[in-house]
Amino acid sequence: MGLSGGALFRLGSDMVVEQRTVRPTHGGNLAWAAGVAGCEPEGVLDFSASISPLGSPRAVADAIQGAIATLSAYPNPDYQQLRQVLGAWHGVAADWVLPGNGAAELITWAGRELAGRERVYALAPGFADYGRAVRAFGAVLEPWPISLLVAEGKGLEALAGRLRTEDGVWLNNPHNPTGQLFGRDAILPLLATGALVVVDEAFMDFVEPGRQETVIDWVGQFENLVVLRSLTKFYCLPGLRLGYAIAQPERLQRWQQWRDPWPVNALAEAAAIAAVQAVAFQQKTWDWLGPARQALFEGLGQIEGLEPLPGAANFLLVRCEASVVVLQEQLLKQHHILIRDCLSFKELGDHYFRVAVRLQEENERLMGAIAQELPPLLEPALASAESGRLER
Ligand SMILES: Cc1ncc(COP(=O)(O)O)c(C=O)c1O
């Protein structure tokens, strides 16, 4: 039985959860959550999308306001100013940067290039869009299982041993959904061997500058390297759609010829220029995230039945002894809180959830709600029935 309309999850003789609408495969689907919670979408406290709770820098709203006057003209398809600002920020020339309609658009073009390789390895569990992108061009991903609990490159060394010169690799650093930060040293052997290595650094901004493991400074030396970045998460702009690729200019020119001429609208262009220059906002984010994540990690770890994994990004993956599908529904109905189930990461199934790190009082609300809802779901009879009888 699928996960769409009317599917029943049997979790014990007395407990049946009905899924009335199509279960989302991405976080942040507030319409779905509101339907389950029985409230307005604005009433849902969303921990499922890993977006900064600090909002956007003030300068971004001003820039969007100012750019409204330019909407009567097409954007310049070269996006020269935006590329210059992004390039200066990362220490590369403007023609080594290609802005796109979210990192998601650039994932599509990276997928097109990877699809032409002999094999395309992708970390498993991993972000579902990588599979979407290569499938669009007739290829499939070769899953490369990584350890959930051991950080610092575990799994990548073994992949380097397996990789052949005609293969491609799709990495994500810090990694969604585990939050692991791979060391640059673990990526280097992949670059030395593989035909193409795409490193999605959509969450790297959240790592404090001195601890980042970005490989952007290697693009000059490795023509087989593509780095993807996103403004969605750090600057709380998921609705704007702005991401960019950094790679050698010949590759980016090819992508530019494949795609439509104006994938970035004038408002997104102006907003992005303002966002990356918002230095005080960036510092405020790092000041908030470290202590907030640590407090959430410790608090979740104290709840019986939960085991959070240490993470370097703005979210935590949590192992849960009870069914997450049931816990998620209880949290929505009783508390209007949405956590991210991990059913779309098929290696994780119904015993993991992911939560964004939010503001302290919101994190406390989450922990209080879980502490209230989880104990009845942990009853031994229910737990053993669950593992054998879960219907999907
Ligand atoms: C790992 C990863 N890469 C890329 C994206 C897409 O980012 P964007 O909003 O810039 O398209 C996401 C969104 O969830 C993500 O989790």
What is the strand and helix layout of this fold?
Elements: E1 7-10, E2 16-19, H1 30-37, E3 45-46, H2 58-67, H3 80-90, E4 97-100, H4 102-115, E5 120-124, H5 129-135, E6 142-145, H6 156-162, E7 168-172, H7 184-193, E8 196-200, E9 225-230, E10 243-246, H8 249-258, H9 266-276, H10 279-301, E11 306-308, E12 315-320, H11 324-335, E13 337-338, E14 340-341, E15 352-356, H12 360-377, H13 380-389
Parallel strand pairs: 3-13, 5-6, 5-7, 7-8, 8-9
Antiparallel strand pairs: 1-2, 4-10, 9-10, 11-12, 12-15, 14-15
Alpha plus pi helix count: 13
Total individual domains: 2
The neighbouring-strand order within the major sheet is 4-10-9-8-7-5-6
CATH topology of the largest domain: Aspartate Aminotransferase, domain 2
Strand content: 15-25%
Low-confidence stretches: 1-20, 388-392
Query: Would you identify the CATH H-level superfamily of the largest domain?
Result: Type I PLP-dependent aspartate aminotransferase-like (Major domain)
Mean pLDDT across residues = 91
Span from first to last CA?
5 Å
User: Which hetero compounds are present in the coordinates?
Assistant: pyridoxal-5'-phosphate
Order of helical and strand elements: EEHEHHEHEHEHEHEEEHHHEEHEEEHH
- Count of individual beta strands: 15
Rg (C-alpha, Å): 21 Å
Largest sheet: 7 strands, mixed
